Amino acid sequence: MKHSNPPCLLTWLLLRISDSLYDPTIVGDYEEIYREMVTKNGVKMARSWYISQVMKSLPMFFANLVFGGVAMFKNYLKLAYRNILRHKRYAFLNILGLAIGLAACLLIASYVILELSYDKMHPSFNRIYRINGLIPFGGEELHNAVVGAPLGPAVEESIPEIEVSIRVLRRSNMPVQVENRDFKETKVFFAEQDLLKVFSVPLVRGDYRSALEAPFTVIIDESLARKYFGKEDPIGKTIRMTLQKTFNFQISGVMKNMPSNTVLKRSLIASFATLDQAYGDALRKWVSWGNITTFVRLIPGADVKTVDSKITALARSYLSEDEKDASYYLQPLRQIYINKTDHGMNNDLDNSGSLTRLHIFSAVALLILLIAAINFINLSTAKISGRLKEVGVRKTCGAMRSHLVKQFLMESLLLTSIAMALGLVLFTLFKPRLDIYLGKHLNLSVLTTPWILPSIAGMILLVGFLAGSYPAFYLSSFQAAVIFRSNVSRGPSKTVLRRILVGIQFFIAGILIVCTLVVFKQVHYSETKDLGFNQNNLILLEIRDAARLKNLDIIKNQILRQTGALAVSSIDNFPNAQNRNISNIRLEGQTEEESKIFQTIETDLDFVPILGLKLEMGRNFEKGRIGDRDTVLINEKAAKSLDLENPIGSFLVRSDKTYQIIGMLEDWNTNSIHSRIFPTVLFLSDETAGELIIRLPSEENQAVISRIKRLMSELTPEQIFDFAYISDLHHQSYDEDRRLASLLISFCLLTVFVACLGIFGLAAYSTEQRTKEIGIRKVLGSSITKIILLFTRSYARWVFTANLLAWPVAYYFVNKWLQSFAFKTKVGFGPFLFAGLITLAVALISVIFQTLKAALAAPVDSLRYE
After folding, report:
1. For residue 584, with 0-12 CB atoms within 10 Å meaning exposed, 13-18 middle and 19 or more buried, which class applies?
2. 696-708 burial by CB neighbour count: b if 16+ within 10 A, else e?
3. What is the pLDDT of residue 491?
4. Rounded to two decimals, what is the model's pTM?
5. Do 375 and 98 contact (CB within 8 A), yes or no?
6. Higher per-residue pLDDT: 79 or 584
7. Which residues of 236-275 are buried (b: 16+ CB within 10 A; e: fewer)?
8. How many degrees, rounded to 5, is the angle at CA 441 between CA 438 and CA 445?
9. Structural domain spans, the chain
10. What does the longest C-alpha to C-alpha distance in the chain come to?
């Protein structure tokens, strides 16, 4: 009969329901009834009845599915929990290793994300740019982050694509006096009023529309307000700061503490109008190489390249003839911190980021997490592979393969979840410490960062599935009868795979150890390298008032006579870090096109002896020689740049003025060793030098500094006393390198520790599996030493191979990093040998510890082990 069988889809659904209800005969009964009804009542009536029976069965089916699933889930969870308790040591090693790896990865990720998020909190940040100069100089083009002061107002007025411009003058280590208390603010801005409107600088006190309009007004942040005035209201109070001379500034506003991920982060911002009073016409002079940072905000949709050309054309219409080849371009605000300029940026904002550093930390984070995941998978598969008999017993008792798969995966996922949860706890505990160390607030948070929890969930599923897939799909595939045979294969190839994974771990660890040792070696080299001058017991003293009053010689003589200082020298601007004055200089008779870039230092005749510089040939400036005003000293690098074997008597031209070379000095590092030694020319300064270099005695130097302070308060009562040790200025140049080294050391130790956990667990498992073998070998006369050598040989071979493979990779990366230094330490073979010894020692100690315990046990106990 054509419709004697019920519809296939309904029959399939009924089969699923009957399986759930454990009553498979119900399908046959329903089919018989269906055929009878087709004969008696027709197909339509039979189908209606059949459909109604299926629909009546669905509620019970779904109830069984839900409650049965929950019951099975609870059962799997209970079994997983019991297995974890039964194997506490392995569970602990597994959980701890993965948790540490996750926490370290999150800590590094939070730092990298912060570095990449700079200045994205400002409204319309994608329309804000900084005007940079591209200045031809001695055959090169220099990128310059500061421009002439008149450029900002001119482009705002003349170029319709520019909505607003903001000018900023940066000051570092600004001395501040509050009610006879002296402070020093490391970063200070003098900025125009529109800064508060264009950038997100919210005021909690004061009017943002006028807080920076009047001269000698200043706004401070909440932290600075508490430091200066405690709980008092700071509005209207006065502080003192020194520009050309010392002025009183009135506090007109209090701003919220700026976030750490902005290049504008300053605790103190003074009005730009103050500079008109302090410097006068100097701010109205058009120059290609100025000292003002200028930001602009473009209209929506403006073409940046078009604006670049308009700015260049406008500036060239005002510049002098010898500066008209300068050009200008806009740099996006979001790229200022992570500078995209290939050739470096002169006069950039402080503490710029480094893409190289971010790449290093990102790679370290991924490698630590990879090691932790390999550890977890290795230990999980090693331990669970010993449960083959358990699989056989469960199958004998009626367990289906799907049930075993679910159970093993559940155990793996539970362990992974516990490890991830512990990792989040560790991250939360250690993040505040990293904030303090970096001096930045890392914005990453478990609760407020939306991608963390989904990422953790994905990682739990990935790592848990990889770790549980071997026992779930491989071990569960055996038939019970096969499992109980004594010669059944238990996957010996998995032992080789686990050792390969151990080798990968130590390959990664070897790379990190070598890189860390080289970074540490370079930082030590930077701090201890002979710079070519004696920087010990030297201080640098600001003397702006003395320069203005032109009483420099009086102050120098009084310091020598009254304070106990050993020597004093004046200098216009002491070069440190990457800061230097540069000029176009050429030999007499050469054209301007043949000019080259030289670092210039204006100082007095005491500069050479106070620094302990060595004269290669010629003489120093001499007192009483009026003609020395038109003479210069050069260093060896300058002589080579000028192709002069004997430079004494040659003439140099700077700005159409001619100077005779009277002496050549041995090269010395005027700046940090990140940069090469520049060709340097020393000019004789006049009474307008703004700094003093003072040599202190090796003992009682604090007493001498106190006497200098008292003397300066008498001679320049309006100036705030401000000094710094030159050695400290030198060491500050390597703060970021030291931070990189210390963080790498920390994460490298974590990497070695996690790898140690893994090999410790594998050695424990391997020893446990071969306990009876150890007993038999001891009975047959094998010594403990031979047993240990037997067990350690294979691990040593893999670790040694891993190091051989890691060394060329590490060499490539450390050489690439060292390229950022003009002076660098020799890599040598030491870091590679040390890394190999460390990894080999860690591996062997872990294996020996476990093997020794089994080897020292009585043979009778070993033979009764199973």
Report:
1. middle
2. beeeebeebbebb
3. 45
4. 0.75
5. yes
6. 584
7. ebebbbbbbebbebebbbbbeebbebbbbbbbbbbbbbbb
8. 120
9. 8-68, 125-335, 355-526+734-863, 538-731
10. 136
